[in-house]
Specification:
Number of helices: 0
Mean pLDDT: 67
CATH topology: Porin
Radius of gyration: 18 Å
Shape: globular
Order of helices and strands: EEEEEEEEEEEEEEEEEEE
Number of domains: 1
Largest sheet: 17 strands, antiparallel
Pfam family, one: BVU_2266-like
Distance between the termini: 16 Å
Structural class: mainly beta
Helix content: under 10%
Protein name: DUF4595 domain-containing protein
CATH class: Mainly Beta
Low-confidence stretches: 155-188
Number of strands: 19
CATH architecture: Beta Barrel
Organism: Phocaeicola vulgatus str. 3775 SL (B)
């Protein structure tokens, strides 16, 4: 189960993750996940709580890695909300992954936004550094640089490939987008603490700190803080073991 508490609007959302016998997610809340050959499709999500189920994402997979994805979603830019097409390209070079996304208006293919991300991993395969550049339609540019440290003193047993997407009401990638893939948690599994993660919301860029922790009551808890002090969101992940 995924429980998302939005402290800004005091809203709470509970989502259920369903898995098949191979441990693959087949349903995220009411959203089906389909596997067809080298494609994975996640859709139709309710964007912006409007009842307009446009967030349909298709991943093109090559050798087990995402190569390209296409999404239809609602995107908020300033005070305007657009129906947008998002195209993302993934490039892998050594210990670095480049993820570049273009957003264009569905109606006239007008450019809305570009997000360029560089993800650097250490020798153990853990995320070490993230650099992101946002380019808006008015040519304004903002950038973010994130560092990760790790707590190596965690002692927790689990047997599940746990993944969760948390998408803010403002649209995919617009304010807070979170992907967690912990794999099999074993003794001394390292869990990251995200230091100074930058998020772009409209024309403003915020610095946010995300705390991660494991305990018996909430197997995974993520708390997102604005400027290290104001709690914006709390995410609790729990589950029933597959075996």
């Amino acid at each position: 189960m995924t429980k998302v508490t939005d402290l800004t609007g005091e809203e709470e959302q509970v989502l259920k993750l369903e898995y098949d016998r191979d441990g693959k997610i087949i349903k995220y809340g009411d959203t089906p996940v389909r596997y067809e050959g080298d494609q994975i499709t996640i859709g139709q999500m309710d964007c912006l709580n409007t009842g307009n189920k446009l967030c349909n994402v298709t991943f093109q997979i090559g050798k087990g890695k995402a190569r390209e994805s296409r999404a239809r979603c609602m995107l908020k830019v300033g005070e305007e909300v657009y129906e947008a097409d998002k195209q993302t390209v993934y490039d892998y070079k050594g210990d670095t992954i480049f993820i570049n996304s273009d957003y264009r208006a569905t109606s006239d293919y007008r450019f809305l936004k570009k997000v360029q991300g560089k993800y650097v991993f250490d020798q153990l395969g853990r995320l070490k550094e993230v650099m992101t550049v946002f380019t808006e339609a008015n040519d304004s540019v903002s950038s973010c640089h994130t560092y990760y440290n790790y707590d190596n003193n965690i002692n927790y047993q689990a047997n599940l490939n746990l993944q969760a997407y948390v998408i803010d009401y403002d649209g995919v990638d617009s304010f807070f987008y979170f992907l967690l893939n912990l794999g099999q948690l074993r003794n001394r599994t390292a869990l990251p603490n995200d230091i100074g993660y930058c998020m772009n919301h409209g024309l403003s860029t915020y610095n946010v700190h995300a705390n991660y922790r494991l305990d018996d009551e909430n197997p995974v808890r993520i708390e997102v803080l604005y400027n290290y002090t104001k709690l914006l969101s709390r995410i609790d992940l729990s589950y029933n073991p597959l075996n």
